[in-house]
Amino acid sequence: MSADTIFGKIIRREIPADIQYEDDLVLAFNDVNPQAPVHVLIIPKKPIATMNDIGEEDRLVVGHLFHVAAKLAAEKGLAQDGYRTVINCNEHGGQTVYHLHVHLIGGKPLGWPPFTERLKTA
């Protein structure tokens, strides 16, 4: 896996993105292929390839990813009705960009029954 990804290029402003939030640790931008009315990707500025690569030293930034997700959810009016956060890990988990990222998805009902309930009937 390459250490440089499309997300690294977005962080360096080599390619454009619709940025929703930025601070010293993270960058958040709208997904170019949204799965709901709100679909924001929140990424650490430090390149971390997958969940498996999170180290002890990354605890602050990983917690901050979720803090920013909750902040954006509130700002976008999702907090009351609810939203989904997702992290995909590796190929079988659906990860396509190997730079850790949290999907913040909401603005419509996201399916029922929950995934775990659908597994019981499969």
UniProtKB/TrEMBL annotation:
Domain of life: Bacteria
Boundaries of every HIT domain copy: 6-115
Entries under Pfam families matching the protein: HIT
Residues spanned by motif Histidine triad motif: 99-103
Record CDD domains: PKCI_related
Protein name: Histidine triad nucleotide-binding protein
